[in-house]
Amino acid sequence: MGLTPGAEEPGVQVPDLLLEVVAAGPSGSSDKKDTAELQYAETQLLSIATHILDLHPAGQGHLGSGSTIWQGVAGALREKSLQGKSLDATAGASGSSNDAGEPSTSTQGRPGRLGPERVTIDKASARGSLQYSQKDLAAEGLNNFSSFRANVCVYSGKWMYEALIQPAWQPGIQQVGWATIHCPFTAEEGVGDAPDSYAYDGKRVRKWNVKSAAYGEAWAAGDVIGACLDLDKGEISFHRNGAPMGVAFHNVRTMQPHLAYFPTVSLSYTERCELNFGLRPFVHPVPGFAPLHAAPPDAALDFSDYLLGCLERLAKTAANSRAGPGSWGAEEGPWGGAGDAAGPAGGGLASPAEASTSQVAASGGDAQAAAQPQQQRFGCTRQLSPDDAALFAGAIGAHLVPCLLPPNGNGGGGGCVAEHLCAGALLNTLLSLHGDGEPHDGAAARAAVRLLQVTISKPAFSALMLSLLDALARRCVSAPMVPSDFPYSASYPYLALAVCLLAGVPEVRAALLAHPGLYVMLEAFMARKPPSAEDLKGLLPTVWWPGCKEDAASEGRMRDGLRAFAAAKARVEDCQYVLLTLLVGQPAGGGGSGSSGAVGVEDDALVAFVRYLVQKNRGATRDVQPAGLSDPNVLLSVWFVLMRLLNGVLPGVGQFPADDMFVRASQRGSIDPTNDLPRLGGLLSYLLRESPVGAADLKPLDIELPPPLNPQPLDAAGAALARTPGVACELLHLSAMLYTYRGAGVVRQIHTMNANLASNLSGLEQVEKQLEARLLGGSAAAGGSSPGSRGAAGAAGRHAPAASVSTAAAPSTSVVSSAVGAAPAAGAPVAEVAAAGAAAAAAAVAAATAPAPASPAAAGSPPPAAAPAPAPSASVSRPASVAYLHEARTALRGEVQTAVRCIRLLESTFFGGWKMEALLRQACWLSAALTKVAQQTGPLLAFVPTCYLELLLDMLSAYRGVEAPFAPPAALRAHGLDELLAFVGRVLNDERIRSPDTKEQLLAAATGALESPDMSAVVEANGPVASALVSSAVAMFDSKLWHPVSSLLAQVTRGSGLGARCVGRPQLVACQALLTEALQPGSSLFKGFCDRLFNTLNWAVTEGTSTVATLHEARRPAAAQPSGRRPAQVDEQQLTRKAVLMLDLTKSLLRLLEFMAQQLPSGFLGRASSLNLTRTLELVPFVLGHFAGGADARRLNELLEASRANAGPQAMLRVGVDRTSYTVIHVDKPLFEKVNKAEILVPLVGTLLALWRAGQACSVSDDGGGDDDDDAGPPLPPVSFIDAMADVADARVQTQLKWLSTGLDWEASLPGADGLAEGLREYRALVDEVIELRGGPAADAATAGDDASTPGKGGDGAPGSLSTSPSTGGGLGSLAVSVGGEMPEEFLDPITTAVMTDPVLLPDSGITVDRSTAERHLATSTTDPFSRTELTLEMVRPNIELRAKIRAYMAQRAGSPKRQGGGGVARGW
Question: What is the reported pLDDT for 31?
């Protein structure tokens, strides 16, 4: 008879079964075989038995021959059992078990220990709020601070336990150690906070025993901390992942009353840890230290190891035997075969199966070696029939199975012993069979499992496999990525074995799918252990950046390191992909076999698992996350799997059920986490009430998809998913939510870190220049005065501006740990010192370590914590200064290296390999689907969750920022990029999108697309896309989002204007033409756009200069401050950021004004556009008053000069507790590199030149803005810009205008600017003509004041205290002028006292004002300025009779050559 896998005969004893099989003849022999053949088969069988049982050749005689061989096998095993005291005989010695399989509370045989045999958390003694799991071996803090201890204590001997540090979304305080029963547990105190209480804190890298001290290494999530207590020596030490960190505490009190020590842990909110007291084998055992939980006796372990060795040899022999077709090689063949997961997945990466390509790669490219039979490659040539293998398995299982199963699972050992052996010896045996790397012997591993299956019942086999899979999953959580093991590092060996068993053995897969803890186990398999800051150095030992001067730096070695890291990551992700896609098509409720029919959305096991994750983590986007969330890295792993699975499936999905996902989901209430998501139109409750979706929109939408660039072949999982497009859409919906929960923050932080790294590198460059200058003996060559110099420049240098805190220098712990590691942990700071000046960071170290000065007068004033440090005094020796600079450079280099490591490893994790293409393909599919939603006239777009747009826009941004894109934008135009950009432009100004954050993200995406040279070329070539972006930007400028809109328009207008430079980025000619067309003076948008532009410009100039004044005041010495002390450093940082931001905004808006003056002069010089010209001419003296002269200009000049004289980087340091170690947490450019006055003022010059040229060419025509009736009298003469300019140019303005041409070094400030020299020559001619028309510089000397004749008082050669008011009327230009004498009063506007050019009658008050006056008033009010009744521009009536009189009078006086008092063509307010 033959045995088949899975035979269920629990009532039959194995020895009888053996004898029954033997009676049929060895190897299934028949009477037809001759005697020679039988003897040869018996000899072979005898040799195999000797090999399997690991007997000495002399021991073959004990096995006998013929049918007695099997009796000999059983006898040999029985003899081994008696010699080794099998587990059946020694179970009582290791702690007797009760009926439930749990050990008793006996403590005999374990001196120095008190408590029950089974060690768990003592919940009765815990304080705070805790959530327990893993059979009371894991806990999570639910309040501010909680503490607990174990239910066992020790008073002598050497003991240890392990704590697995589990990830937290908001890493806080966690302390692991030992404490006596007298250690108080309160809301603020725990282990380490009392005498006889000792703890290690890896977050703060300190040890605690009432007081703290530096100790150990920073830990990371997934680290295994070994807490060792040696009561013989009175010492406590800790190990991190098996590496000793030294003795933490000496002289621990022992052998006194009440001095028994308990394992104790304290946790803050959401912190988690899992403890192992010895129930399972220690991951990193420490020799000489015993577990608190009793381990199986050594004799039992030795015998179990022997039996598992026999099983291992049997499995290799059986897997490599070929007894018949389909016996061993088939995927579902008995006990082995090539049953691994099929083919590579959608991303084109190799699967973990032992595919032929993997074998060739593992053999160094030798195809012949890869093609060798498995039995030769794995060193076994014996042949064994299935029946013989089953007989051997039965003989071995008779002794092994009782060891591996608890009593209630048909085993004879204790439950704790069985768990220990299963998680240790059995797991190690299967890992050895399978192999750590390719080529794997998957057949042998599956054969071992199938041979075990023969010997036990189906329920017992399922329990055993679940215990094994649980042990594998636990190893995945804590498996570190070790470079020496690349590419088979991290969790790969455990994942590969799990995939081998689950994909190749249906019974194992069925057991997992039916397991109640399936989702918890899958989460563990999806975990990624992040490295710590120190581990990062091992993962990427060599870093490089452009301009790097490190001797050990090498771009090639860094890229080699990145490739090795990516290869290791890829293998882990391959296994996770295969493991998770085994759920595709499986029923959600369990079941091992694939369903023959299609599985619906509600029934799919993969959908059910991802829904579970989404539901569990629905609070992840809150400011304070709730407890009980998943490991953040699990969400990323699942998101990567879904992205890869959908990569090849989405191009075939032609329908999108937006109605069900966005609207009908609301009917499920809080059960559906989709209803928690913010929507584009606001809160869901508001939308359901105010904007219900009509029945016409509640239907699936057909999607028109462009062809993919690189079509991906579908693997088995993808093909199954493609048959159920509804499941694919649901998975896409859930993946977008997972991305919002975790991925979005990481992706955006990568961009932020990249942006800030540039400023950090600039700071490092400045320090290196300073050091080089000092080593060469000429500090002046470094670009500034020496640190000890006196005078105004030196004083200002001591208070140079501090800049914003950089996130690139110290990456966020939670962000970096999401994929590759944690941020460097610094010691608890006692001071944060800002260092500025030549010594930069070194000055801060000197200030922190040097004694306080004798008096404030001697050193300015001693800086408090977080205040700028004074520069080193003149007494600081040159060698000391050089030493300081060396220290600063070392610190800065370390911070830059850490930032580069984090950025490069994160980019490799998120965008490496196939991922960037898959991300962009998913974004293109989403844009096509959402375009269909946007085309609906109803409110359906408002119901779209914001996470969809976040995913789409982030992927577009990531594609722009990737170093080497898989394809250039031009190649992607026909494959979805055009549609993606068109969607952004289409919804940019859609009124259904009410979320300001989403609007800003859309604007940022559009701005980024125009910033990218390649992407902007795509926009330029696509007329509809460019038109949508430009028209939306113009329409949105008059809104609350004017700032990001200004940034977008600044990109549109780049390259135009005087001195404009387009370094590496082309001018957007097509977009500029579209902007000119959209802003035609006759259009409906033009007037509102101009009003907003002028108002915003006035506000930006005022706000920027007032911030500069506040910053200047804050930089004054403490003695000069009204309060007697300087403001806090953080205020200066905020002020600097704000000042730079407002000045940049001023520059952008002035460029926009210049563009309009160049392209649309009729909008300023046309008769109906007099208001725009007036406001432009008002703006000229207003801007010059703030930047060319006066107190505001003086303050800005002093700040810039101080920054330039003190050209070192602005650094902020965190000084350690010992005041000798420090970490640079901020480096930034000096202020003079951020603010360039010439860049602010050159657009103003360009605006004046553009209007002057237009006036000279006589190209301005009336735009029809006013009523020009024949009865209104003779027409006005053509508008003259030069005349209007002369009206404004009093003596102060003339001085400011001349300073623009002579007081600034334009060429030095704007090197390489196109057309600058020619433009300045024209500008000088313009100024000369204005002064001549005004009557010469002496005409208004009497009104100019004394300061007009004192150039240079404000610095930079600017006039000193020039009035910031541009006119004598006291406002921003209330200019009353006359033409050729006394102007009739009825011709003057009653509000502005200026000559009216287009008088209109107000309907209610009956008063006549100029049309420009009415327009300007109605821009900020809707009432009559005299009667306060309602008024609109449509309600005013032209005063035709008065206009005729004015025109006749003006025509009569227009020919007069004499201009009195600066008169000319009067232009009203």
Answer: 45
Residue in the structure block whose two tokens are 């060559």: 781
- Region of 1345 please: left (phi>0), alpha (psi -120 to 50) or beta: left
| Strand ranges for 144-195 from DSSP E | 145-149, 153-154, 158-166, 174-179
3-class secondary structure, 1388:
strand
Nearest Cα residue to 528 out of 647, 645, 639, 445: 639
Q: Residue 1225 CA to chain centroid, in angstroms?
A: 19
Confidence of residue 1136 (pLDDT cuts 50, 70, 90): confident
Residue 164 has pLDDT above 90, yes or no: yes
Report the length, in residues, of the chain: 1469
Q: How far, in Å, CA of 166 to CA of 1109, rounded?
A: 50
User: Residue 1193, Cβ neighbours under 10 Å: how many?
Assistant: 29
Reply yes or no on whether the pLDDT at 475 is more than 90.
Answer: yes
Write down the H helix ranges in 320-441.
Answer: 356-362, 367-370, 374-377, 386-404, 415-421, 427-434
Rounded Cα distance, 1198 and 1202, in Å: 6
Range 211-218, long-range pairs (CB < 8 A, 24+ positions): 214/827, 214/1217, 214/1218, 215/245, 215/246, 215/248, 216/240, 216/245, 216/246, 216/248, 217/245, 217/532, 217/534, 218/532, 218/533, 218/534, 218/822, 218/824, 218/825
In the chain, the amino acid numbered 611 is R
In the 8-state DSSP scheme, what is residue 595?
P
Phi, psi of 797 (to 5 degrees): -65, -30
Whether 926 and 920 have beta carbons less than 8 Å apart is answered as no
Which residue type, as a one-letter code, is found at position 1028? Answer: A
**Helix, coil or strand: residue 1215:** strand
Q: Is the pLDDT of residue 229 over 70?
A: yes
Residue 1314 and residue 1060 in contact, taking contact as beta carbons nearer than 8 Å: yes
Tokens of 48: 């195999």
Enclosing H/E stretch for 1076: helix 1069-1078
Determine contact, residues 1440/1430, Cβ cutoff 8 Å: no
* 164 residue type, one letter: L
Q: Are strands 113-114 and 1399-1401 parallel, antiparallel or unpaired?
A: unpaired
Please tell me which residue, 1228 or 237, carries the higher pLDDT value. 237
In this structure, is the dihedral angle defined by the CA atoms of residues 1147, 1152, 1155 and 1156, taken in order, positive or negative?
negative
Q: Residue 1280: its pLDDT value, please?
A: 77
Which of 975, 883, 961, 987 shows the shortest CA–CA distance to 924? 975
**The pLDDT value given to residue 34:** 55
Identify which of 1215, 1142, 1331, 406 has the alpha carbon closest to the alpha carbon of residue 887: 1215
Give residue 777's pLDDT. Answer: 62
- What is the reported pLDDT for 1359? 33
In the structure encoding, which two tokens stand for residue 767, read together?
């320090």
How far is residue 1389's CA from residue 1381's CA, in Å, rounded to a whole number?
17
Mean pLDDT score, 1445-1452: 80
Angle at 1235 between CA 1232 and CA 1239, to 5 degrees: 125
Residue carrying structure tokens 């080089």: 772
Rg (C-alpha) for the chain, rounded Å, is 40
266 beta partners: 147, 175
Q: Give the integer Cα–Cα distance in Å for 931 and 681.
A: 16
* Neighbour-count burial for 455-469, b at 16+ CB within 10 Å, e otherwise: bbbeebbbbbbbbbb
* DSSP letters spanning 1235-1250: --HHHHHHHHHHHHHH
Alpha-helix runs per DSSP H in 288-385 = 298-319, 356-362, 367-370, 374-377
Helix (H, G, I), strand (E, B) or coil at 724: coil
- CA distances to 141, 919, 962 from 916, in Å: 38, 5, 8
Cα–Cα distance for residue pair 1158/1078, rounded to 1 Å: 15
Round the average pLDDT of the chain to a whole number and report it: 75
Task: Please check the confidence at residue 87 and state whether its pLDDT lies above 70.
Answer: no
